[in-house]
Design a protein that fits this description.
The complex is a heterodimer of chains A (110) and B (141). Chain A has a single domain, classed as Transcription Regulator spoIIAA (2-Layer Sandwich). Helix content of chain A is 42%, strand content 29%. Chain A contains 4 helices and 7 strands; from the N terminus they run βββαββαβαβα. Chain A has a 5-stranded mixed β-sheet. In chain A, β6, α3 and β7 form a beta-alpha-beta unit. In chain A, α1 runs parallel beside α2. The radius of gyration of chain A is 13 Å and the shape is globular. In chain B, 34% of the residues are buried. Chain B starts with a strand and ends with a strand. The chains are: A alpha/beta (110), B alpha+beta (141).
């Protein structure tokens, strides 16, 4: 999946592009898992370039959180569009993740 | 395979991920022609993916090739989509909502169909003549 990567103050910031759907979920999971295995403990996923997420994408976020918990790391999410926010709120996933309005706000709390 | 007239789109796909992607693509083209809002397109795109991926993943334990029919209709500001498959009987209405439990105890599954049921105005299921028929609809204005 197309994605930009940056690191600020030890936080790995990932901005996936386009659609985190059933087609892209596996490649997204492989990339992110390998980055965490290489040592990234604090991960922020900036959703500003993401148009769409389905339950396949939500599942990857659960896998990633569990992996980071094992390593005493943390995951934060930021900058969701209105539709993605609704998916998180209907599914109850907004209670399971640390979600921030902006990347700056997320970085302050990670 | 697809057939479209101004306010309807009929698709027949086989039970493969590639065909699901093509069906979703054809549906998105239809939505664009109709100028549906981003919010409406998102909900129906999600419904197409969740229902079709669920069908190709769980309906065919024989692992053989099957066909799924999708009929999309747009009339009186309501979009209706009917999904017909000849897989094993599966009533999505019996799937419970995701349990409100901490992340460590979350099990995969169930979330996708729950999202669709919540986002649509109607969600119906019928088992008829050896086929599963799911019909969803939503008023879009």
């Amino acid at each position: 999946m197309e994605m930009s990567q940056r690191e600020i103050n030890g936080v790995l910031i990932l901005s996936p592009f386009g659609n985190l759907d059933f087609n892209q979920a596996t490649s997204f999971q492989e990339t992110v898992t390998s980055l965490v295995e290489q040592g990234s403990k604090k991960v922020l996923i900036n959703f500003s370039e993401l148009n769409f997420i389905s339950s396949a994408g939500l599942r990857v976020l659960i896998v990633l959180t569990k992996l980071l918990q094992q390593k005493n790391g943390a995951l934060a999410l930021s900058s969701m569009n209105e539709q993605i926010e609704e998916v998180f709120s209907i599914s109850g996933f907004h209670k399971l993740f640390s979600i921030y309005q902006s990347e700056e706000e997320a970085l302050k709390n990670l | 395979m697809s057939h479209a007239s101004s306010n309807s789109l009929d698709l027949i796909l086989s039970n493969t991920p590639d065909d699901v992607s093509k069906a979703i693509h054809d549906f998105l083209v239809f939505c664009k022609e109709k100028n549906f809002s981003l919010a409406v397109v998102y909900k129906f795109r999600l419904a197409m993916e969740e229902i079709l991926v669920n069908t190709i993943s769980y309906s065919y334990p024989d692992l053989k090739k099957h066909f799924i029919k999708v009929k999309i209709r747009f009339a009186n500001d309501i979009v209706t989509i009917e999904f017909v498959d000849d897989g094993i009987e599966f009533n999505p209405l019996t799937v419970p909502p995701p349990a409100d439990v901490p992340l460590e105890e979350r099990k995969p599954g169930g979330v996708g169909l729950y999202l669709v049921k919540t986002m649509m105005d109607t969600f119906e299921y019928q088992r008829k003549d050896g086929e599963n028929i799911i019909t969803i609809s939503k008023k879009i204005i």
